[in-house]
């Protein structure tokens, strides 16, 4: 019971991040499940089944707030589902001792990508002109969906970052569209895992706990997308993913603890420093905005100047 409660909290935190940033639910949840000793395929399967519910709730919330570009969702979702099904099939056929380092490496790479996205690109304010081409969206869906199943996450880091970098879609609609289309991707990945692992190979209790936690905070996350400093939360999530998966790979490689512990402590220290930098950068950006656009003060009444006769 204690494990399920912890997973519920993990699901809530992961959904808060994902619904606000358009990424990191799957990567965060799968990272923590694999670190707890769950096989990569079973971890990714549990996360994908949970995502069927969390992405549905998130999509409805984003739609109500006007955060969804339905053209992007229509084009992106089907290739994403096909890629997710293919990735699930590949992962379920990998031996466990091979899958763990492969998934750990994918998650570590995605974590570094999340950090890069929110540290290097966090201050950009692109102009949003035109619309994203179908020829860009279809391969993006295939690649993002495949990585999503292989790593238990990847749809958001690949899709959100790519759409933002295109400079053609405003951020709130990028997040809303990626979260909404992920419902179809989660269904495709879940079907692949169900065929590859069978119902007995999926821990439904873990999936349910992640689902409940995620659904509870989905409306809040959709609302926060307009108010939360994305750079700070993205940096915190990326650092958590990097540190946790670095540990997974070091343990898999049987690196002695005398080496592992200092390395991990160093990574944690760097992570804390990056979060602190993100907080300062966000504050400086906000102060700069206030300096350029000072709030209008109260109107001051002036006595009329008497006419000179």
Number of helices: 11
- Secondary-structure element sequence? HHHHHHHHHHH
State the end-to-end CA separation: 90 Å
If you compute it from the alpha carbons, what radius of gyration comes out, rounded to the nearest whole angstrom?
Answer: 22 Å
Contiguous uncertain segments of 5+ residues: 123-128, 299-309
Strand percentage lies at under 5%
Average residue pLDDT = 79
Roughly how much helix do the residues carry, as a percent range?
over 70%
- Structural class by sheet pairing and helices: mainly alpha
Shape: globular
Number of strands: 0
How many strands, which pairing sense, and closed or not: the largest β-sheet?
none
Q: How is the topology of this model organized?
A:
Elements: H1 2-21, H2 25-35, H3 40-64, H4 70-92, H5 96-120, H6 134-151, H7 155-166, H8 171-197, H9 204-224, H10 230-252, H11 257-292
Notable characteristics:
309 residues; mainly alpha; 11 helices; 78% helix
Structure description:
This protein is mostly helical and 309 residues long. It is built from eleven helices and no strands. It is globular and about 55 Å long. Residues 123-128 and 299-309 have low confidence and may be disordered.
Précis, in short:
The chain is mainly alpha-helical and 309 residues long. It has helices spanning 2-21, 25-35, 40-64, 70-92, 96-120, 134-151, 155-166, 171-197, 204-224, 230-252, 257-292.
